[in-house]
Specification:
By secondary structure, the chain is of the alpha+beta class. The protein has helices at residues 37-47, 107-114, 130-148, 174-178, 187-202, 230-239, 260-263, 333-354; strands at 4-5, 10-15, 21-27, 65-68, 70-71, 74-75, 80-85, 151-159, 162-163, 209-216, 244-249, 267-270, 273-276, 284-285, 288-289, 294-300, 310-313, 319-322. α1 crosses α3 (130-148), α3 packs across α8 (333-354) and α6 packs antiparallel against α8. The longest helix has 22 residues, at 333-354. It is globular, with a radius of gyration of 21 Å.
């Protein structure tokens, strides 16, 4: 069950980093939704490796193949199978981890759980798996945009100790985000972020950071108390991404330094409906969307694979030094932007299908 995300709008991913292919099966997507590879490929192109000197040199075209669930440009209501063939595998780069677990990788924990592990590239634990969820997330985005006018956009807001301005109030576009290789829409901050990444890479090291994601035009009422709160669904999705170590919604941890009188979002009447004057709640109150933009900040640790020798111990306890090997991102954040967008879309699509609107013939409590 750990390979399935969602309760109603579900996605199952499959495949290993250096296997023949990876992919996803999306189930319960509504029928008659216009969908083609052209709706999916742009997000895959944003995630694929080899885009700049800030990312891994691995070359994968990541061309999506729709195997089922779509006919004549419309979804049929059945499972939508999406396939991405691996074309640049190098399993020979991963001979050492067979004998010794790499520091901060999943080698040891997968071996402890299953008694066996993929011989190369981390298998299912590899960030390569996220390409499959990006493809599935693009399907969810199409559903959300077509049926609810919901828009999702993410960008890199911090790399190491370099942070940019708060851009959550701006109506940014993906074109503006992608204008910088590091995917930070503020040019001056982007330049400093790129310098930090190149400096880490030049030292054979890596660096982490934060991605901010804003989901606009999410209807009020999505999310199911108490265990399937919208905040819990989003956290489930974000923490399933490799390298994610933290999540903030709205004011996040900064709220701990405020008084209730400072943090509370008072209600006002705007455009004929109740809105909030501020959005420190990040669009979610009581685990249910309130109609305001949902604001997420997702923290990523430094890439575990680094280009310098590392000390570890073999499975028999012998201390050894692992030589640098394999291809990796010195900073995962530029390529993780569409992954964050994908998991936000999948969580919201699941919440949308789970939402039960009040019956118009029954009175509602005032």
């Amino acid at each position: 069950m750990g390979n399935i995300f969602g309760n109603r709008f579900t996605v199952t991913t499959f495949g290993e980093s250096h296997g023949a292919a990876i992919g996803a099966v999306v189930d319960n997507c509504p029928a008659r939704l216009p969908l083609s590879a052209d709706d999916i490929q742009p997000q895959l192109d944003r995630r694929r490796p080899g885009q700049s000197d800030l990312t891994t040199p691995r070359r994968e075209s990541d061309l999506v193949e729709l195997l089922s669930g779509v006919e004549n440009g419309l979804t049929l209501g059945g499972p939508i199978a999406l396939l991405l063939r691996n074309t640049d595998q190098r399993p020979r780069d991963y001979s050492q981890p067979v004998a010794a677990p790499r520091p901060s990788h999943a080698d040891f924990t997968y071996q402890a759980k299953y008694g066996i592990m993929a011989a190369s590239g981390g298998g299912r634990a590899s960030a390569r798996e996220t390409a499959a969820r990006v493809a599935a997330g693009a399907v969810a985005e199409k559903f959300l945009a077509h049926c609810h006018k919901t828009r999702i956009i993410a960008w890199v807001s911090a790399v190491g100790d370099v942070s940019g301005p708060d851009l959550t109030e701006q109506a940014l576009t993906r074109r503006e985000v992608d204008a910088q290789a590091v995917r930070c829409p503020d040019p001056d901050t982007a330049r400093r972020m790129q310098e930090a990444i190149r400096q880490a890479a030049g030292n054979g090291d890596s660096v982490g950071g934060i991605i901010t994601c804003v989901c606009r035009d999410v209807p009020a009422g999505w999310g199911d108390p108490v265990f399937d709160k919208l905040s819990a669904l989003l956290a489930h999705g974000m923490f399933s991404i490799p390298a994610v170590k933290g999540l903030e919604i709205g004011a996040g941890f900064a709220a701990t330094r405020l008084r209730g009188s400072q943090h509370n979002d008072r209600f006002i009447s705007r455009d004929g409906r109740l809105r909030t004057a501020t959005n420190r709640s990040g669009g979610i109150q009581g685990g249910i969307s309130n109609g305001e933009p949902i604001i997420l900040r997702v923290a990523f640790k430094p890439t575990a694979t680094i280009a310098c020798p590392q000390q570890t111990a073999a499975y028999d306890g012998t201390e050894i030094t692992l030589a640098p090997g394999g291809r990796h991102d010195p900073c995962v954040l530029p390529r993780a932007v569409p992954v964050v967008e994908a998991m936000a879309a999948l969580a919201l699509a699941d919440a949308a299908l789970s939402h039960v609107a009040p019956c118009p013939d029954l009175p509602t409590q005032k």
